User: Fold these one by one.
Assistant:
Number 1:
Amino acid sequence: MSGTSAALTPPADAQAPVRHPDAPAPGEPLGAHYDQCFGCGGGQPHGLHLEARAGEGVSLTAEFTVQPAHQGAPGLAHGGVLASALDETLGSLNWLLRIIAVTGRLETDFLLPVPVGTTLYLEAEVTAVAGRKIYSTATGRIGGPDGPVAVRADALFVEVKVDHFVENGRPAEIQAAMSDPDQVRRTRAFEVNP
Ligand SMILES: CCCCCCCC/C=C\CCCCCCCC(=O)SCCNC(=O)CCNC(=O)[C@H](O)C(C)(C)COP(=O)(O)OP(=O)(O)OC[C@H]1O[C@@H](n2cnc3c(N)ncnc32)[C@H](O)[C@@H]1OP(=O)(O)O
């Protein structure tokens, strides 16, 4: 069973997404947005270490291999971890728009169990933009990039300013991020977006 709620149906005046001119070329890795991110950061030992690559238009592909630390039932991925992989993949799309955004809503269908050791082949695209609202969709396949869909999600991301993080994040991590030149450079790339 699957379906999308009315909250994730773009309004009639929604626009097609526009790829930012400085977005990485198709095939290029997007890299981590934050070293300590559970989804993509290299500094999280039990994180997903999800690696995303730009696709055509406002789309991307990503891979994540389920580790023993990601179990729910014995030998199977935890559903929340799979939802995290979808969330991270969908969130990475906003880098192609050069818009800072956070997840407002994430609707997930779990179609097949995903064993530990499995690589999830993710694909995602932005379908529409309406003001601050970014609508996107993703699938995760197993057995190969053309294998059966094990998980899928539709999402609504909401554009925010950098202040969203500065005002709400724990001060210790915010201060560390602000004194990391790589983090500041990456954040500035978002801020110059018109
Ligand atoms: C130099 C150092 C500084 C550091 C900088 C770091 C840069 C990092 C770069 C990139 C980071 C990306 C990280 C990716 C990680 C993966 C993605 C995640 O997991 S993100 C975490 C989970 N999500 C949250 O924690 C959101 C918590 N929620 C909120 O903060 C607010 O609710 C927020 C921002 C989502 C909306 O609040 P409002 O007050 O700004 O705006 P309102 O008016 O409520 O909503 C705007 C529109 O969106 C709709 N909307 C909002 N939430 C909705 C929902 N749940 N369902 C349907 N519609 C919703 C509303 O109905 C409204 O629509 P209408 O304009 O009236 O048409």
Number 2:
Amino acid sequence: MKFEAAENSLEGVGDDGSAVSIPFTEILALTSNVILTIPEGSESSLRVYSYKALDVTDEIKKYYLNELPPYLDPRSANVTVINSANAGARTGEAVYTSLLRPLFKELGVVHEYILTESKSSIQSFAGSLVPESGPHTIVILSGDTSIHELINSLRPISEATDLTILPIPTGSGNALMTSLDLGSPTSAMFSMLHGSVRPLRPFYGSFPPGSKEVIPPTDDEPDGLTRIFALVVVSWAIHAALVGDSDSPEYRKLGNDRFKIAAKENLERGAAWHGKLSYVSSSGGKLEPVELEDLEHSYVLTTSISSLEPGFKIAPTAKPLSGSLELVRLPFSSGEEIMRVLMLAYQDGAHVGEPGVLYTEIESLRVEMGDSEERMRRWCVDGRIVIVPLGATVEVHSGVENVRGWNVYIVA
Ligand SMILES: Nc1ncnc2c1ncn2[C@@H]1O[C@H](COP(=O)(O)OP(=O)(O)OP(=O)(O)O)[C@@H](O)[C@H]1O
């Protein structure tokens, strides 16, 4: 076929005179002899058009793939596709077979495919990666938890090695990819081919010895602390409580309403969380810790992204992938008042302007636990619950350059 670029589409004419029109919005990539598209409206499967003639004009330059990016090129990376079978509505298999596999076949991306068989599949795979086999690329069809498990299961290495993660969002939340405007499999695949490689720079929580986790702990740090890397959230007080409660079998039966119901019950309880809280702000170059006199808290949350769920802008000025970290803290007050303030997050993050709300970019946060009741000592790290010992101190630190020696990148 011969194609020409029109204003918003590629117009093609076959040797037999047949015509075809491809809107730019459906193009995934152009190579020197094919046009790869994902037609809208159909059951999302890759369509390939061969062509003999096409002028690569300015309008279509951004779709052109001269050569494979190094992280997909079999000569420079080991590519593995992991499909986290339990993620979201379990669409990973369909996305792989109708989009990703044919795309990789067309482009010559040699890869291994792993369909997870259990809760520990991702952990075992990540733990098996070694620097000796060179740079790795992991395309992961999943939500946030699977990516969290992947980076937290990397084993420590002494020789810095590149690991590029290409998430294709198929989970129920996908907060990380949504925050990067790559919340659909199609947009993620476009970015995989044409995006820029950027350090992932996860932040982390540091948990003292004796902390109990729902998922077995990853490697302990030499100082006895357990460092858990986070991509989305590290929180304490009401946020951790509602995530923890909603994970129980009786709440799970309630489906997605379980978060709302758990939030309501925690707010109605009207309890304060006690602890000595200090933070190091990263604005103004002042690295002295600021200690709050107020020891009673309702909401303490750190995040590197702006919205934990669509529309809920808890940290409106967050800059994903920059390594920066935002703290949101509400003092103890009535359940109704906490609810009123938090609901303002749905109004473009208006809660941060409310009196009493502490919202600041931080280098680190430190909390000494002051509650005897175990349920008040729960922390949430990307949805995973960690219960810390009485009187323990928990720290949260802003984004790091590497994860246990691995230079972890994402393409966005
Ligand atoms: N075959 C399997 N059996 C049991 N658990 C699995 C299996 N495959 C994957 N898992 C686990 O299921 C979870 C899937 O989480 P993931 O984040 O990918 O999706 P999600 O929870 O739907 O999305 P989000 O975290 O964005 O809301 C992970 O903990 C993963 O280890």
Number 3:
Amino acid sequence: MVQPSPPRTEPERSVPHPGERPDTLLRVSHASIGYRVNGAFTRAVADVSFDVAAGETIMLIGPSGCGKSTLLKTIAGFLDLADGTITVAGRRTLAPGPDRAVVFQEFDQLFPWRDVLDNVAYPLRRNGRTKAEAEQQARRYLEMMGLSRALDRHPHQLSGGMKQRVAIARAFALEPVMLLMDEPFGALDALTRARLQAELNAIAKRTGVTILFVTHSIEEAIVLGDRVVVLTDPPSVVREVVTITEEAKVVGSEQYRSVRTHLGSLLHRDGKEADEDVAEFTD
Ligand SMILES: Nc1ncnc2c1ncn2[C@@H]1O[C@H](COP(=O)(O)OP(=O)(O)OP(=O)(O)O)[C@@H](O)[C@H]1O
């Protein structure tokens, strides 16, 4: 007899957290995550808890190797938790699912043999849309990312910034509950990066999607985030969650400088080697 396949997610018992917000979408609760190397288990993330409300953009920042990508991949369902729970809309994230779309830093995350339109439309067809529906949806999001004139190009004919725009359009087109972004602008030049940050802000506002964004850059964290979750050195815990006001987003303003200094001091507290951007900031 054919056994039914196990559910991709499992309902989580509703246990109220202290300070719980009614609109919580992502809950990371006492997450502990590690890797087994040559038979020995090493913890990267020790005990991390934070909540993300629906529609928020949360930035994850911390020293190199503190487990930011590890945490994001676990929320995406690519890695298992050693301890704790992660839920999205009350369901445990035990496997990847269409409710969580991921954008990585690498430019090679596109299908090289498909053109731009098909790179975005193909996953929609896989999710049950007809070809016409998928292409219509793909065109809509590619237009939002300023790519209407590049629909028939293949990835090798695109710049790094254009490839990341396609990857972002593809993620948004899936209309996920959450967008997980792992340093998507990390390999871009400063100008392209600033442009894409502005485009991401605009499309995020327009769609109301919830975003968890890993970055090395304090400036990026302030410009894009509603709140910034600062992790410690590994095995990591949450050092502080910093709220970013609208005033603080004005680069060069007093509030901007004050938040930047505060985030810099949080990242330097262990006195160990800091990330490039942070080191740059102290010089
Ligand atoms: N596949 C793996 N096998 C074993 N150890 C790993 C693996 N991936 C990551 N690690 C280790 O886990 C720790 C956390 O890595 P992770 O990439 O999550 O950190 P990060 O904060 O994203 O780093 P960075 O800021 O440098 O990108 C590091 O010590 C890393 O060496």
Number 4:
Amino acid sequence: MKVAVVGVGLIGGSIGLAARQRLGAHVSGYDPSAAARETAIARGAVIEAHGSVEAAVEGADFAFVAAPVQSLAAMVSSVLEVAADSCVVTDVGSVKRAVAGAIEDPRFIGGHPLAGAETSGVEHARADLFQDATWYLTPTTVTRGVAYERLHRLITRIGAWPTAIEPDTHDVVMASVSHLPHVLANVLVAQAARVLSAEGERLPATGPSFRDVTRVAGANSVVWGGIYRANADALVAAIDDMVGRLTSFRDQLASGDDAGIREWNESAREDRRRLLESDLAGGEVHELRVLVPNRPGIVAEIALALGRATIDIVDMGLYPSSGSHGTVALWIRGGVVAEQAERLVRDLGLEVARA
Ligand SMILES: NC(=O)c1ccc[n+]([C@@H]2O[C@H](COP(=O)([O-])OP(=O)(O)OC[C@H]3O[C@@H](n4cnc5c(N)ncnc54)[C@H](O)[C@@H]3O)[C@@H](O)[C@H]2O)c1
Ligand SMILES: O=C(O)C(=O)C[C@]1(C(=O)O)C=C[C@@H](O)C=C1
């Protein structure tokens, strides 16, 4: 198997390492930076490194575009121009609408691994970066089912959990759970630096809680500048919501509303518990077999219906036939969740059987 990585930085390099170590893939890379190409070879993230997209993508079964968000649409287009008809092309961008709106090709599926670090560059790449991470996928009505299945399987094999989602939903959610936390980390360090220097304290006088919530402050400016700009509308809305929440707590505090403050804190504990629990779904794996018409987009429709209900597909298999219908097998963890998945698939007007 040949995997091409276009943009061999922290994420591209980690995909290269994981594909080589876990799948035994032949990995080739493209990066405009000669230094990144050299380091990628030295770290073993790629076997070949090229200064041309065409050379890197030649003969690839999969191409991952891992450039900064502002370059993704152009780079995905360049890759699709030179990639084989059988090549599955994806990206890893932290914002999904711009790329999804610009590309319409049956070989392309937008993607985003919900894993990373505050560092950047291939020197910080790790083969285990994606272990147990959610990996969002944004298939569309033109996505070829077999391309989705192959990408789903590859992502599973490098240790992550693929989950289908619409680009709009993805970007609104990320504004609150990823982009806003980065903004807040920057604001917190700026405020603390000013307060500490005004009080004459040396700057490192901070405690563990401060270090936890500011780990990502000042992360790579090229990457994060691009993310903030590409998701500006959703991020502005998330900031407005945050300002409203801060103001409301500020008012409770200023008016000495003890009961209100206690209730506010208790509800934060409950919200945190629910957020953590949603990551811990377990149970036995059940197989559903779905009879589907042979048309593009049908696998995307099923994956999105389950993704919307936050149901993970542990594995999937496609069994096309020469007739008008084929079969999609889905493996779902947990009896109750499998029943819910069965109902959702039936609601799409499809026949489902339990294997
Ligand atoms: N850092 C994270 O935590 C994280 C997590 C998930 C997804 N992402 C996404 O991954 C992508 C890359 O981020 P990263 O953290 O690996 O950044 P990085 O700075 O570590 O790597 C980016 C690489 O892309 C190269 N590059 C620049 N312009 C390019 C172009 N036009 N074509 C190809 N390569 C180009 C750079 O030389 C660099 O080697 C971004 O789209 C980001 O949104 C980042
Ligand atoms: O762990 C970190 O340092 C990250 O910033 C990773 C993180 C995140 O916000 O959780 C950052 C951006 C990505 O798009 C996905 C994951």
